[in-house]
Specification:
mainly alpha; Farnesyl Diphosphate Synthase; 16 helices; about 80% helix
């Protein structure tokens, strides 16, 4: 007979793992990783407060989205729905707490320009679930572009948050990094749409996998992802010398993405979980590159 203490500990651990996977925390870690790797590449010293603010902001977006669309997810993401239902009644209170904590943190740590830009980002995040998702029914790839722009704004958010000495070189580097993140996020979002083909088709959403199918989408992603990750770091680091050599470490993320695609091809949901956290791998690789190169 299993010890009650061990059984409770096991339940808690399972809940924590499920919460990290299905509660939007991997995406939050990805946002933090973009801030972290941007700080290394742009040579900006960051503090704990920006990490707390960005995490709270992204967690609010993803939790709100999952809460509002739980009835849709029940058919395509049953495990996520099952997990969220364990504390469904608490989600509104959690959201209120997160939002209040977020705005208190912004008022305490930031200036008026950071507050305005944060409110802009917050509105973008919430409005997608409330209004903008419907546009995907009429505009192909709107969802992918929307989410990619959102993540691509994070290097600019870092720049505004710390307001370093702004130079033309720093602006160029920031915009280039934002473009890189936009393209990579666009690829990631197309990949993540594969798991939602059926639900997106039922909703009438025009996503890449819905239009071209799973197999053609995976072939396109394998080529596009490899091309983007191999060319941009090399061109902007070695040729234009905009970024330090540590960005070249991102090249080692190519096999990681191909492995995720292979898992998806084999109907393994774990591939989507891994891919959604690729920016965490980027941050680790760039940190290692900073130490070694």
């Amino acid at each position: 007979m299993e010890n009650p203490t061990n059984a409770n500990t096991k339940k808690i651990l399972i809940f924590i793992v499920n919460e990290i996977i299905y509660g939007g925390h991997i995406q939050c870690f990805s946002a933090l990783s973009i801030i972290f790797l941007s700080a290394i590449l742009l040579k900006i010293k960051i503090t704990l407060d920006i990490l707390i603010i960005v995490y709270l902001m992204f967690y609010a977006f993803y939790l709100y989205n999952r809460f509002k669309e739980i009835h849709i997810d029940s058919s395509t993401n049953p495990q996520r729905t099952k997990h969220l239902k364990t504390y469904l009644k608490l989600i509104p209170f959690i959201l209120y707490f997160i939002i209040i904590t977020l705005f208190i943190s912004l008022i305490y740590f930031s200036n008026i320009w950071v507050l305005i830009f944060s409110l802009f980002l917050f509105a973008l995040g919430i409005l997608y679930t409330v209004s903008f998702k419907k546009i995907t029914k009429n505009v192909a790839l709107f969802k992918n572009i929307y989410v990619s722009i959102f993540f691509a704004l994070l290097p600019l958010y870092l720049l505004i948050y710390y307001s370093p000495l702004i130079t033309n070189f720093l602006i160029t580097a920031t915009l280039t990094l934002s473009l890189f993140i936009f393209l990579k996020t666009f690829i990631i979002q197309i990949f993540l749409d594969i798991k939602d083909i059926e639900s997106d088709r039922k909703e009438g959403l025009i996503t890449f996998p819905v239009v071209f199918g799973k197999e053609k989408t995976l072939k396109f992603l394998s080529l596009a992802n490899t091309l983007i990750i191999l060319t941009i770091p090399i061109f902007f680091s070695l040729y234009l010398n905009i970024f330090p050599k540590s960005i070249l470490m991102i090249i080692f993320a190519v096999p990681f993405s191909l492995y995720c695609y292979d898992l998806a091809r084999k109907q393994k949901y774990f591939g989507y979980i891994l891919q959604s956290g690729e920016y965490v791998l980027w941050a680790i690789l760039i940190l290692v590159g900073k130490i070694l190169l």
